[in-house]
Design a protein that fits this description.
Ribosomal Protein L9, domain 2, 4-stranded mixed sheet, 2 domains, 9 strands, 3-stranded antiparallel sheet, single chain
Length: 150
């Protein structure tokens, strides 16, 4: 099934791209959610007319994403967790914990934007990648310290 994306979807492409997807994915998710339209002759002509407008919108959103990325980059976040004597945490630091601390800095992000390859389960310093959007990523330093040490 060929569709024209009405918004950027990380796994498929950017707004205005013509993509081929499986029928069920298109019929059951993309079309009902308004994220895409069928790639008919009329819709392809409409896409050609709006190419400049779409390119301007993508450029604007990329610029906004780069601004947010610059705000996030270089920040250090400290998270206190209960830990044993050997430095291992009781539990782990999650993407939600990191997103909450970044939001406390006044930068709105979602926990799905935080990329953790492995869960953080020990005290220490970690570099964590944040997917801001439009192929823009930022690095933030997360310092995990033991809480309640007396």
């Amino acid at each position: 099934m060929e569709l024209i994306l009405k918004e950027t979807i990380n796994t498929l492409g950017q707004i205005g791209d013509v993509v081929t997807v499986k029928d069920g994915y298109g019929r059951n998710y993309l079309l009902p959610q308004g994220k895409a339209v069928l790639a008919t002759k009329a819709s392809l002509e409409e896409l050609e007319k709006n190419k400049a407008e779409i390119a301007a919108k993508v450029a604007e959103e990329t610029k906004i994403a780069e601004g947010i990325g610059k705000k996030i980059s270089g920040n250090t976040i400290t998270i206190e967790q209960l830990a044993g004597d050997d430095g291992r945490l009781f539990g782990s630091v999650t993407t939600a914990d990191i997103a909450e601390k970044i939001c406390a800095l006044g930068i709105e992000i979602d926990k799905r934007q935080v990329v953790l390859t492995d869960p953080i389960k020990a005290v220490g310093e970690y570099e964590v990648e944040i997917k801001v959007g439009y192929s823009v990523t930022a690095e933030v330093k997360v310092v995990v310290v033991a809480a309640g040490k007396e």
